[in-house]
Amino acid sequence: MIFRARQFEFVFPRPALVMGVLNVTPDSFSDGGKFQDVNAAVAQALELAAQGAAILDIGGESTRPGAGPVTEAEELRRVLPVIEQLADRVQVPLSIDTTKPAVARAALAAGASIINDVAAHREEGWMWEVVAEFKAGYVCMHARGTPRTMQENPVYLDVVREVGEFFQERLERLNASGVSANRIVLDIGVGFGKTAEHNLQLLANLRSFTTMARPLLIGVSRKSFIGKLLGADLNERLPASLACACLAIESGAQIIRAHDVAETVQAVRMTEAVLARNRK
Ligand code: 7PM
CB neighbours of 240 closer than 8 A, spacing ≥ 6? Predict the structure, then answer.
């Protein structure tokens, strides 16, 4: 299975990719405000790459529950300087975490290679035309509602089945928009319009999505469902985040989105080493 993103190509099976998170926003979920300064953000990105991040995910708009929208101009002001400086300083692909096609286009022109699109209910095809035009990688993530509304009582008949149906429908639309399948990564969207129970059901049944023959990306790092389940504060969620990452690898996920890159790389590599000796 191949994942292509502009000049980058990843052939699976291979060691899982850890996607390091760089939020350049004042109110981001777990590290808001620390990296608003461009130099600080670039330094953090270089550190994440040094820790083993195979992709750097740069986000200029917080998508934590309840977050308000950010204007296109403000989002561009935050992310472009960081992408421009990083593009020729790191050898790993840069991902732009955005829902705005204009931000995605500018980020790709500045050197990003992957669009991490957290807006699942996209009607117009412009974002996908940008992806096709730049031959960018595209993370197709399931979500219900918007960051402002998504956690207000999300209800599913069968969350696993419905997310699977979403992926099928999106793969068809992406194909119709000229985005070739080998540029697409699928993501269940942990925390995006799901209760803690929904998140657990999706994580427990991740293997059912591997039939779509596309790399699966999982983002559980420090998320609030861990806090809800275990009473863990924001900076006490690393063990549970790592547990979910290792289980996701065992279930067939290929990309793990994480804030704590060094710890996640170590946990994922150990998981892979053990699984490689499985005799089934
Ligand atoms: C709720 C709390 C929602 C925290 C989102 C967050 C993902 C992402 C984020 C993910 C992909 C945060 C995250 N999560 N992109 N962006 N998958 N593809 O860490 O799970 O703030 S934002």
Answer: 226, 229, 230, 232
Q: One of 100, 170, 223, 237 is an active-site residue; which one? A: 223
Write out the two tokens for 276. 């490689």
3-state secondary structure 117-148: ECCCCCCCCHHHHHHHHHCCEEEEECCCCCCC
Domains of the chain: 14-60+78-118 (3.20.20.20), 157-280 (3.20.20.20)
Task: Summarize pLDDT for 67-94 with one digit per residue, the tens.
Answer: 778 999 999 999 999 999 999 999 999 9
Active site residue 207: no
Residues, the chain, total?
280
Cα 220 to middle of ligand 1, angstroms: 8
Atom 6 of ligand 1 has which residue's CA nearest to it? 64
SS3 call for 166: helix
C-alpha angle 18-23-28 in degrees, rounded to nearest 5: 120
pTM: 0.95
pLDDT digits 0-9 by tens, 30-59? 555 565 689 999 999 999 999 999 999 999
By the 8 A CB rule, do 60 and 78 touch?
yes
Is residue 29 scored above 70 in pLDDT?
no
What residue ranges in the chain does DSSP mark as E strands?
2-5, 8-11, 17-23, 55-59, 94-97, 114-117, 137-141, 184-187, 216-219, 255-258
| DSSP code per residue over 19-56 | EEEEE-STT-TTTTTTT-SHHHHHHHHHHHHHTT-SEE
Q: Which of 114, 192, 216 maximizes ligand 1 atoms within 8 Å of its Cβ, making it the mutation to test the pocket?
A: 192
